[in-house]
Structure formats: structure tokens, C-alpha cells
Amino acid sequence: MKKIAFSFEHLSFSHSNGKEALKNLNISASAGESIAIIGSSGSGKTSLLNIIATSLRPSVGTVTVLNVDPWRISKGRLQRLRSLIGLVHQAAPIPPRQRVITAVLAGRLGQWPLWKSLLSLIYPVDIAGPHLCLQKLDLADRLFDRCDRLSGGQLQRVGVARVLYQAPQLFLADEPVSAMDPVLSDLTIQCLLEDARIRDACFVASLHAVDIALRWFPRIIGLRDGEVFFDLPAAEVSESLLQQLYASERGVLPKQGSANTSS
Amino acid sequence: MNHYPAREFCLKCLITLVLIASFIVASFAYLSLNPLALFTKQAMSDVAIYVARFFPADLSSIFLQKVWTGVLQTLAISALATLLAAIASLFLALPAAGQFGYGAKVVTRFFLNFLRSVPELVWAVLMVLAVGLGPFAGTLALALHTTGVLGRLFGETLENHPPTATQALRLAGASNAQSFIYGALPGIYSQLLSYSLYRWEMNIRMATILGFVGAGGLGQILYYELSLLHEQQASTVIMAMLILVIGVDMISNKLRRVQMHSLG
Amino acid sequence: MSRVRHLRDPDALRRFSVAVIALAILWPMMQLAQFDVFALFEVNNLKVFTNFLIQFFPPNLQTSFLALVLKATFETLAMATAGIALAMLMAIPLGLIITYSLSISRLGPASGHQIARLGRYLARMFMLLLRGIPEIVWALLLVRVFGLGPIAGVLAIAITYGGMLAKVYSEILETENTLPARALLMLGSGRINAFLYGLLPGASQELASYTIYRWECAVRASVVMGFVGAGGLGQLMDQSMKMLNGGEVSTILIVFLLLVLLADYISLIIRRQLS
User: Is A99 touching B (CB cutoff 8 A)?
Assistant: First the structure.
């Protein structure tokens, strides 16, 4: 019986302005699974990921992440739980003037005591580790550069490198390749999938481009208006199902390189 | 802010002006001060005689040496005080920005307001009582007051800073302190430095006069010489004060212009 | 992967040298400022200071003392107000000298009088002198001429704040929009009138606002000047401190903080009324 990575039970979530983003979700995933979440803008992909990341609290129902309910435990335990969850943001949340190496090292802050974090500012406590992560993403030569000297796609990869360095048990990615060309997108997704596989970690990614989802992920969840429209192995996702899912997008399925209207 | 055409007659303004004028007259009356009496022949000649005592200034090398040490001491007091205050404010910025809850925020803000409201000279008198006469009292006094000022500025800067980077780190398990240092600090660092340097400039001016209550620097020398009726020596110290303040002003203006240019 | 083992932070050397230089400056600075943390914990000092602090609670609320404090508060307020009034008297002509020909030349072709330019230069230098010397230094000197009491304080404020007001008045007038004044010129009014009726009214609110703000600062400065004998709350606090009477000092501090709040409030109301 594989360990459960996360599960939702009758979960609903409404924003503070009253808009219901997720309606009565009942999903679960076990360790080692790789799942792609697809759907049109506003379907609730980001909210779903944020609920797993313990950034948002469900309005109704329960969420269980790595076998604990994050909203019933102490702050200290929540902090430790969060260090086991890695979230790749769509726009890398890195201060512009920070150097790439510091930004990547920040991934392990949850595992380091304060003195180590301070020491690292004086001289990086680990250079080989970040270098390795960046090497996998073809960015190793920028190790000591400042982040504001990077392009959008490069910055996104630094965000991914940070999560790789964090080595979490649960990978989450919110449109991680939106700013990248096809070659780099494939490289990044492969990298994340490989890392998840080695660590037997669950990997959930929300993607705008359907072809990437179908190409790389064994399990696809389609969200429409905050509800699960389908939850199927990639092979069983038919063209007509996709058309129905993206009914609002005027019959054009979003693919890699098409105009990105992100949620 | 411009009103075209000329502004209309405003009754409230007139009443306010009349109230202010009567307040001014009442003040003079309360002090039994007739401003015209200041400009009588007797008063003017008294002033003239006194002013004459200040010239020529004592420019002997022994005394200039003493004054130079005073200048350096004044600079040291202001620099150390600002440094201490900046470090303390860095710590206090987190609770002041609300990162430890609303209660902590209110208490911290109140505390910082208190530090700020008490004038530096009053702090100096208190510190002289605590640690004795000398520049250490001046340093502590300035540090306390400046912490109040910088603490509030740092807190506001942190509060107004977009929290995306900090929140992302917290979601990865970092503590409040860690997410502040790695997430917020790189973004607000230059603003905090700018506030601190500006405050240092003002503190130099303050440090020159704290000596009046025994807290070291040029002020202590001036007070000492004046109480011994050595007006010529006092004149030298006053000139040194002027040169110091004007010099710092010019340097900082130049640096600011250079910074503007380098930012493009 | 031997390449990885030799990777070094290129920035480290610069950071290290900056740290060394900073420490090299810090050490003599601490010597100069006689930074001796242990003085804080020296037994005798500590005893005296803690005893003093303990007396802060409760503050001295005897009627006789409160009456003294009230008198001193009025004296402080009167000092600040009279001082600012005199400062304005000084600042208006000074400010105008500096800004007059400049503003006039902004309104129309410059007259380019050499005398005007010289006058402007001298006025600027004079103002620098007035502003550069802190008001408390002036107070210390004036106490020796006019004796202990609020007169020295009033004059000290008048001198320093006169210089400050003059500088800011001239700055406000120099950056004011000249459109209404130029409009008047086009309608045929003289340059002086264009200045008085076109330029001045638009700037008057800012001028008044700054003056009231300076009044607030003057209230605070009046208290501080009391420590060199210029009367008011400051002198009272100085006397109480010399007697190590913590209760009295505590009362005066509280009254001072309330006074500052009151001055802040009054200034807010006046500024709102004038807008």
C-alpha cells in the first residue's frame, strides 16, 4: 500500500471576495505519482496547487498532505511539513538583486538552523549542490550572476533549481514552463520528473499547454469551473474530452507556444 | 494646488488668521517681552560688546588640536550611534511590520514612538546619569532616539514591500527571520541604507550639541570654554561646528547627485 | 566532477576586504567615542540609575508642582510662538531678496542687475550662517547677554528658524507655477503686482503649512533650550534631574509628550482650516 502524498475530501474553496474557486473535490495521489492538471484560465488550477502547498486554507472539507492535516498541527510542525513541499511558482519569487547561488540555496532554509543561513550569506556553505541543480537545467554558467541579469525563462529555471535543491517529498509546479521555448520546457519537465522519480516523490504540475501534459504525465486531471471534469490516465484522454474541457476557449486547444492566458 | 483665478474670500481663513495673531500677541504679553525693547540702543550695544569678545578666534595649534579631536569624536559618536540604531531597527522592523502578530506590532510601534518623541538632549541627560559624563553617554542617547526614528521607517518600508518573495520562502519551511533575510532584505536593503545615511547626517549635527549636557564631542568643549568666559576659544569651536555641518551637507549633496547619475 | 570542487565564490574576496576595512575603522571609532559597554553595568552607576528610574512610578502629581509645570508649559508655548513670529518677520524680507529678482525674471525678461545678484548671494551666505549654528548654541550665547530666561530662547528660535524659513520660502516661490502671474502680465499689470497677486496666492498655502510645521518643531526646540537656561519645561526638567528627583522628571516627561501631541493636533487643524 503506497503512502498517500495528498488527498482532498469534499473540499471546496472560496476566495475572500466570495467567488467559489473549487467545488467539492475528492482527489488523492500516492507517492511517486506524476499528475498534470489542465484546464482553461480561471478553472482553479492555481488555487488547487496552493491548497496542497498549505498556502490556502480550504473553506469546506479537509486536505491531508503527507499524512497530516496542515491546519490541525502546531506552527512548528507546519513549518517542518512545508520544508518537505516544494512549489515552483509561475513567476519566480526571487528578489532581483539576489545572486543565483543565494536564491538556489534558499531552498533549504527550512532545513537549516538560523546560524547556518547567516553563515551562508558571508560565504555560501554549499556551492557544489546548487551548481549540480543548475547544471541539470543548463544554467550552470550563471551560478554567481545577479538574478536581474537573467531572462524570464532563465529566472524561471532558477526557481525550478531552488526546488530541486530543496529535495522535497512533494513537488508542485504552477505553470513552470510558461516563459520557456519548447526545448527548454521539455528539459525542465524531464528534470523535475526524473528528480521526483528518484526520490519517489509525488509530482503535481498545472500546465497550460495540453500537448506537454499529454506527452509527459501518466495521469491527467482536467478542471472546469472548479470541478474535476475528468481524472484519467493520459492514454484515455480523448480529443472530444479536451474540446469539452476548453469549451470556453473558442475551440482552440492551448498548445506549447500559443498565446498564454494564464489563470 | 494652484487656484485659477485668484482665490475667493474665505471666512474660515480670516478667523483662523485672527486667532493666530491674537495667540502671538498673547505670547509676547505672557513673556513680558516687548520686541521693540530688543532694538534699543542699550540692548544693541550690549550685544555688540559681547560679539566683539569673540574676535579674534584662538587659532593656536594646541587649541586647534583639541578642536580637531572634538570633531573626530563628534563624527565617531554620530557614526556609532547610527550604526547601533540601524542594527536595532533591523531587528525591530519585523514586529513593527506585523510579522509577529497585531499585538506585537502595536507594542513595538508604541515603544519606537516613545524613543522618538523624547528629544536627543533629554536622552543625553538621562544617559549621563546612567554611564557618567563623556561621549559614551552621547552615543547611547543618539542611538536610542535614532532607533525610534529608523525603527519606524524600516518597519514601514518592510510593510510596503511586496511579500511574494518572503511568502514563497515561508511556504518552503523557512522561519520568519530567514524569510526576511533572504526574501525581503535584498529588495529593501538600499532603501534602508539610504535612510540610515540620511539619519547619520542629521546625527552629526545633533552630536555637536549633546556635549552641552556633558555627552562629549564639540559641544562639551564649547560649553567648557564658555563657562570659563573664553569667548575666543568658543569662537573657534563654533567655526569648527559650522565647517563640519556645512562640509557634511556639501559632501552628501555631491554623493546624492552622483548616485542619481549612476542610477541613470 | 573535479571541476566542481574548485568552484569559488568570486565575490568573496571583495566582501572580505570590505569587512576588514570596516573593522579597521570601527575599532578606533569605538576608542574615540569611549565606547565602554561595561560602564552600563558598573555597580555604582547602576544603583543610582535604577533608584532614579524607580522613582518614575508614580509621577509627582502634587498640585503645587503641577502648577509649576503648567506655568512652564505656557512659557514654552509662548517662547515657540513668539520665536516663530519674529522668525517670520526676518524670513519674509530675506526670502524676498533671494527670490524677488529671480521670480521677477521668471515672469518676464530679466533686469539682470548686478546689485540684485550680489544682494542675493550675500543674503544666501547670511542665511547659511544663521541656519548652520544650532539654535541651542545661539541660546547658550544669548543667555550670557540677556540673562537666564525665555528671552534668550525666543531670540535663538527667531535667528535659526528665520534662516530656515527664508530658505524654504524662497524655494517654494521659485518652484511655484508662474502661469497665473504671466497671465496677469499679459493683461497689462506691472511685474510687482503680477508677483503679489499671481505668484504669491498660489504659494501661500504651502508657505503657511511649512510655517506651522516649523512652529511645531519650535515647541520641541524650546523645551530642549531650557537645558541651557532658556526657561520653560526644559529648565524645570534640568533642575529636577540635577536633584535626581525621578517623580518630577517623570511628570515633566509625560507633560512634554502630551504637549507635543497637542502641538501636532493644533497644527493639523490650522493647516486644514487654511486649505
Answer: no
